[in-house]
């Protein structure tokens, strides 16, 4: 595992309104659903490589970042070595979500101005790699060292969770998902049209491991907080109320 600075402070972003239920409310139904999601992905990993998982969405505002963060936190709480990567370089948000001060990140590692060990920070059990100071997101994501960075993380951690850009918004999403072993699509209940979900899944192709239905009111869904039908065999169908 790559050495990382450890934050000793409390987690300012662990309040429930921030959506980090895995930290703030580990006994809540939403946190339990992230544990179910993690276990389903772990079972899928027994049949196919699953060291690098891209968490994406069809568009913005679907709860993708908080879903990625909660999945990574859950895996770390299960004893895995996990790094959460801010891979949405156009609109990075992990530093704000976790209340981290500005620091070197993905951009600096790619341009060679910082080593990976200098950019990774520990938040409790979880390692986090923020975006850094991104001047040209398109150029950064096309950088020839991008694939090498993902492989370096793959070799250093049990699990790499990419907070990836929306699958349909930019070509960035396809580039990053292509470096992953699998992708999870986050969909906001009652907001994302079915056709848009279908297009997003088609763009991910065989990398799509499943769909997470976010921001569900359990009272309006048959069978409580379950289910959203996945389009693929092992699609985890997790409904998290107010988790994004």
Give the full name of the CATH homologous superfamily.
P-loop containing nucleotide triphosphate hydrolases
Tell me which oligomeric state these chains represent: single chain
Count the strands?
A: 9
Helices and strands, in order, run as: EHHEHEHHHEEHHEHEHEE
The share of residues in helices is 25-40%
Q: What's the CATH architecture name?
A: 3-Layer(aba) Sandwich
- First-residue to last-residue Cα separation: 29 Å
Question: If you had to describe this structure to a student in words, what would you say it looks like?
Answer:
Helices cover 35% and strands 18% of the residues. The protein has a single domain (29-240), classed as Rossmann fold, CATH 3.40.50. The chain is α/β, with parallel strands linked by helices and 244 residues long. Helix 10 (194-204) links the parallel strand 7 (182-188) and strand 8 (208-214). Helix 2 packs across helix 3 (64-77). A 9-stranded mixed beta sheet has the order 1-4-5-3-6-2-7-8-9, with helices on both faces. It has 10 helices and 9 strands.
